[in-house]
Amino acid sequence: MGVAGKAALAYHVLPMLVFVGLVAAGEYVRPPAGRSLDVSLSNNYTPTSPQQVHISLAGDDKMRISWITHIPTPSTVKYGTSQGMYNASSTGTSSSYRYIVYRSGQIHDVVIGPLEPSTTYYYKCGYDSSPEYRDLGQTVWTRSTLQHIGKSGYDVLLNPGDLAYADYYQPFWDSFGHLVEPLASQRPWMVTQGNHEVERIPVIHNERFTAYNARWHMPFEESGSKSNLFYSFDVSGVHVIMLGSYTNFELNSDQYKWLESDLRKVDRTRTPWLFVLVHAPWYNSNVAHQGEKESTRMKDTMETLLYNAHVDIVFAGHVHAYERFVIRDYNHFSPFSGRHACTKTKLINVVRSISRLEMASFGHGQLRVVNGSHAQWTWHRNDDVQPDSVWFTSLASDSGCVV
Ligand SMILES: *[C@@H]1O[C@H](CO)[C@@H](O)[C@H](O)[C@H]1NC(C)=O
Ligand SMILES: *[C@@H]1O[C@H](CO)[C@@H](O)[C@H](O)[C@H]1NC(C)=O
Ligand SMILES: [Fe+2]
């Protein structure tokens, strides 16, 4: 028996629960980083056992299944709608990568489908037995956050970057894969890249995002993008755009042109909600990470596009603290043209004035899309319940700009 998983799909069916982010740590009273978990890979797997299984959405009615084996094996997934009855099968591809002296296992990539909406599918990948689940990980905070997320029956997890914090040490990518497998093999995990995923060392390893791109293949081809670093997808009345903070975002860039065309294609009668994820936040009143070009320059370049498209919510990562802004009010009172005249200090003050809440805590957020017009966001700290909660109404029919 291979790894057996259960994937539930919720296409075009509301309500939906979306999780955003894995870890936020405090800036002002940063909680201790947390004990690192044991990441040594004492291996109980056979060389052909599937490991680090995770799934992601791949087009309107398909799922991508990814896993790793120590040696090359066929990339085949068997699946079906009843447990133990895998009457359909798909075959994909596999590859591996080198990073200095590290050589990855064989990374398998198989797309299954078409799948029926609102149906639970059971699948297994590979042939071999892999009975052992090993709870490895990065820090005790990560594990705590994952345990909280696991309890809540979500449909899709969205992560705005900084996944494994491998920071050049490739075995941490593997331990992260093991850590998230119990959740990521059950529900789609949709991610974008953070600065910790770049992993470029001039001269020694010039390529950027080697491990990230090899291990976390997102549906960029399906969304007409040329790069795994920016893409979009639809799920349950929501169009989600994943932007890349660490790839070119200037006016003449592939990313900017792709974003323009992707926004043009959005049909708010079909997807009344429009969310954007980006790693480096465009608004941030923390002292940390002020003035980084991935924040300021990217905002100056792309914000008007998002604003005019009536994007409902932008989620960001990077700063290890929770903060929520109300941007539309801000834009209402202070048109873009005026903002460029602000000094940096003034700007931080303005940003503070639109900040509704900030707190130093580890946790995750849940966005419950109730229907086409209402969604509720709640922030969940690992230590206690729901310190922040807010209702959104879709901007789909908003008449827009006020300038
Ligand atoms: C697989 O089995 C289910 C019943 O368990 C059936 O409804 C479905 O049509 C079968 N699919 C194929 C491809 O045979
Ligand atoms: C959507 O959900 C909100 C909140 O539960 C409710 O007040 C509203 O009537 C719902 N709208 C529709 C069209 O069902
Ligand atoms: Fe970051």
UniProtKB/TrEMBL annotation:
Signal peptide: 1-25
UniProt enzyme class: hydrolase
Domain Purple acid phosphatase N-terminal: 50-133
Pfam family, one: Pur_ac_phosph_N
The keyword Cell membrane belongs to this UniProt entry's keyword annotation: no
EC number: 3.1.3.2
Cofactor(s) this protein cannot do without: Zn(2+); Fe cation
Domain Purple acid phosphatase C-terminal, residue spans: 354-384
Keywords tagged on the record: Glycoprotein, Hydrolase, Signal, Zinc
Domain Calcineurin-like phosphoesterase, first and last residues per copy: 144-322
InterPro entries for this protein: Calcineurin-like_PHP, Metallo-depent_PP-like, MPP_PAP, PAPs-like, PAPs_C, PAPs_N, Purple_acid_Pase-like_N
Reactions this protein catalyses: a phosphate monoester + H2O = an alcohol + phosphate
CDD domains associated with the record: MPP_PAPs (cd00839)
Parts forming coiled coils: none
Membrane as UniProt keyword: no
Molecular function GO labels: acid phosphatase activity; metal ion binding
Membrane-traversing stretches: none
Highest taxon of the lineage: Eukaryota
Family from the record: Belongs to the metallophosphoesterase superfamily. Purple acid phosphatase family.
The protein's name: Purple acid phosphatase
Taxon lineage: Eukaryota, Viridiplantae, Streptophyta, Embryophyta, Tracheophyta
